[in-house]
Design a protein that fits this description.
- This protein has 330 residues and is of the alpha+beta class.
- The chain has 2 domains: 177 residues, no CATH class; 106 residues, no CATH class.
- Helix content is 37%, strand content 13%.
- The chain has a 4-stranded antiparallel sheet with strand order 1-2-7-4, sandwiched between helices. Strands 10-3-11 form a 3-stranded mixed sheet.
- Strand 8 and strand 9 form a beta hairpin.
């Protein structure tokens, strides 16, 4: 072997070794920042995943969430979102708080993910801390953190990074925490060794989420028709009234719905989150329906400051509460 070729190969091997060490160091530091699981993958076109996303849009399953149909080509490759991307760091943060909903009919249930502080803020802060630490060692590096704030196929990237698999309820499922995880993504021009161990789909023949969905929103395994989903209707859908197929099966849900996660066998591995910001505010996992109807704008703003519940707006919460009371009084 010519000396020049040997030295090129040797330098590449040394560089690869450094990339592997950086991968391990990032995971250690991420744990210190309260990130429960992290994986690293390479940018590149998500061909099959992107095609499925376009098919989902074509079927109209996104309902009135028009932003999902904008900038669709950007979702095909994370490099389209952040030019110069060489590594994709995907983080998962456990949000399971060990509390339950009550069965009090005069109260409306809140989805578990919105019990505490807004995950966009909490997870983004953890990612920014990780970026700051990386910049201390690589001052010239460029990176950006995203938590549901960019046209990325986050769950597909999480699968490629080895964090878990996408279940039949379309949620990412991890071995360690089930599906009770928030995802965040860092795109960077740093070259980091990609993870090469991936989870198979462990849903098997199970269809508990499909059978348990109150409105049959899981139109087929792995496919959600948002227009039939209680979470979509109570959070994203605008308008004065909820669809009749939702109100007939609302089952006390004021904001969101956790049924397909509550019945998932993999969620028996749930572990309490170490992040107290995700614990229920004021110990509440549900809210008095009459209290919602009597709230003014100032009370609403104070009660849900930096909370994901603000996504529904006060008018949406009032509509949802009214639907629950009307159904209760029938």
């Amino acid at each position: 072997m010519p000396d020049a070729v040997f030295f090129v190969i040797a330098s590449q091997m040394m560089f690869r070794s450094e990339q592997i060490e950086l991968n391990a160091a990032i995971k250690r530091k991420a744990a210190e920042f309260g990130i429960d699981k992290i994986g690293i993958t390479l940018p590149g076109r998500l061909e099959a995943e992107y095609d499925r996303f376009l098919q989902w849009l074509s079927a109209g399953f996104h309902g009135e969430m028009a932003w999902l149909a904008r900038d669709t080509e950007k979702r095909a490759d994370p490099g389209n979102v952040f030019p110069g991307t060489k590594s994709v760091i995907v983080a998962a943060v456990n949000y399971f708080a060990p509390f339950r909903h009550s069965a009090e009919p005069e109260k409306g249930k809140i989805s578990r993910y919105a019990w505490g502080d807004d995950y966009h803020i909490v997870v983004k802060n953890k990612l920014e801390s990780l970026i700051k630490w990386l910049k201390d060692g690589f001052p010239e590096m460029k990176a950006r953190a995203f938590v549901d704030t960019a046209p990325l196929l986050e769950k597909a990237l999480a699968v490629r990074a080895g964090l878990g698999w996408i279940g039949k309820n379309a949620n990412l499922i991890t071995r360690e925490f089930g599906s009770w995880v928030f995802l965040g993504v860092i795109l960077t021009d740093l070259e980091i060794a990609a993870d090469e161990q991936f989870e198979d789909d462990h849903c098997g023949k199970c269809r508990r989420c499909i059978d348990a969905c109150p409105t049959q929103a899981i139109s087929s395994p792995y496919v959600i028709d948002s227009r039939r989903c209680i979470s979509y209707a109570t959070i994203e859908l605008r308008g004065e009234n909820l669809p009749s197929e939702i109100t007939a099966n609302q089952d006390g849900w004021l904001y969101g719905c956790d049924v397909c996660q509550d019945v998932c066998p993999w969620n028996k591995f749930e572990k309490p989150t170490k992040e107290t910001a995700f614990w229920p505010r004021m110990g509440e996992t549900e809210i008095s329906l009459n209290q919602v109807l009597e709230m003014n704008n100032e009370q609403y703003a104070e009660r849900f400051r930096q909370s994901a519940v603000k996504r529904a707006k006060l008018s949406g919460l009032r509509r949802n509460a009214t639907a629950l009371l009307n159904e209760k009084n029938r």
